[in-house]
Amino acid sequence: MYCGEAIGLIMxxxxxxxxxxxxxxxxxxxxxxxxxxxIVSPPSHCPKCGAEIRWWQNLPILSWLALxxxxxxxxxxxxxxxxxxxxxxxVLFLAAFWRFGEFAPFMWVxxxxxxAGSFIDFGHQLLPDFVTVGGxxxxxxxxxxxxxxxxxxxxxxxxxxxxxxPFAVPPLNSLVGLAFGFSLLWLVRYLGTKAFKREAMGxxxxxxxxxxxxxxxxxxxxxxxxxxxxxxxxxxxxLVLAAKAKIGKFVxxxxxxxxxxxxxxxxxxxxxxxxxxxxxxx
Length: 282
Ligand SMILES: [Zn+2]
Known about the structure:
- By secondary structure, the chain is mainly α.
- It has 2 domains: 1-100, no CATH class; 125-282, no CATH class.
- Helices cover 68% and strands 0% of the residues.
- The chain has helices at residues 3-32, 62-66, 81-100, 104-124, 129-153, 171-196, 203-216, 218-243, 256-281.
- The longest helix has 30 residues, at 3-32.
- It is globular.
- It starts with a helix and ends with a helix.
- The structure holds zinc ion (ZN).
- Zinc ion binds next to loops.
């Protein structure tokens, strides 16, 4: 095995473990933030019997498997959400390392916000500000910072996707993307609310699309809108069929997780998606 390969393998393993550990913390955020609890104290405990969870019972993925999803003391079931979120974290951090190389940590921040936001939205139909407003601020700051250091580090702030995926768009793209994402979804929300005579989506979704624009630019916003509507319709139809829910009866389906799915597709296959679309139009 070549030295480079060994380093690549070690870095890949490190990325996965980093993702699983961060996601383990995100599990705490997902449970506590919507309930208005502190994320630092008290230490993790079983919600049923109150037994404190020791560090060896709190290893990402492994502990849940070892305890077979049950509290070590009272055997109360522990939600599979814990191992699901940790596995998603590991896989996404690893995928980001393969895609963005040494710049992956900048994407890890955004991936963490999306994981927390999606699961909170699923459970509570709300997107917290630290995800949406945080994402918008992070996108603009990352774009400015990478643009400032680019001449010194030869950072790939590529204009838009020839082959290599840039980890940050130039500041103008970021600002235009933010404004475009925000106003596009604000318009969809406004028209939807008029058409259905009830709130069609929350302001959180509008801010979240602003964040997608701030991070990845206006083209990413369009692609994310198309993909998220597609994913949302597929799942919506499946839910209606599965539950035999009466069509016309309003079912609250959070939109945030689908925006995140669309954004993920953009992050990992953006250039390929654009090339595919261009080939269709030609
Ligand atoms: Zn317990």
